[in-house]
Design brief:
Elements: H1 6-14, H2 16-26, H3 33-57, H4 63-81, H5 84-107, H6 113-137
Helix pairs in contact: 2-3, 2-6, 3-4, 3-5, 3-6, 4-5, 5-6
């Protein structure tokens, strides 16, 4: 992670704060559940957008590369249509799955290793927050 610009580290880690604050809020007020779900969906769609950008920067990108850019947004949308707890679980699975695919892509040189290091930390925090919120609301 040291190879990443300081703003990327700071903004990335700060992006975990809503996950944690909203998840804790779910233990006290169920009304925090939808904002947690909406934030998780936004982040999952953002993860796909990163890969869309990677694909566009490579003039020879295969279809799968663009697919990785689209699928997370579709999963996020479906998660918002589900009952709240199920949606939070789908979002957690979507973020974890995206991290797994990114790890595999990094082995092929398709994802920069400094990005992957930060993403694994951020994915872990996001999944933790989403699961914590789901448990509180179950």
């Amino acid at each position: 992670m040291r190879d990443l610009p300081v703003p990327a580290r700071i903004f990335g880690l700060a992006g975990l704060l809503p996950f944690l604050a909203l998840a804790i809020g779910c233990w006290f007020r169920p009304a925090f559940g939808f904002p947690l779900s909406a934030y998780g969906a936004t982040i999952l769609a953002f993860l796909g957008a990163v890969h869309w950008g990677f694909a566009l920067s490579d003039g020879r990108a295969p279809w799968g590369r663009f697919g990785l850019g689209v699928v997370p947004a579709l999963v996020a949308w479906v998660a918002l249509l589900l009952p709240l707890v199920a949606g939070l679980l789908v979002l957690a699975a979507g973020i974890a799955s995206t991290a797994l695919v990114e790890r595999l892509a990094a082995r092929r040189g398709l994802v920069p290793s400094p990005y992957l290091a930060l993403r694994l930390v951020l994915s872990g925090g996001a999944v933790f927050g989403l699961l914590l919120g789901a448990i509180a609301l179950a």
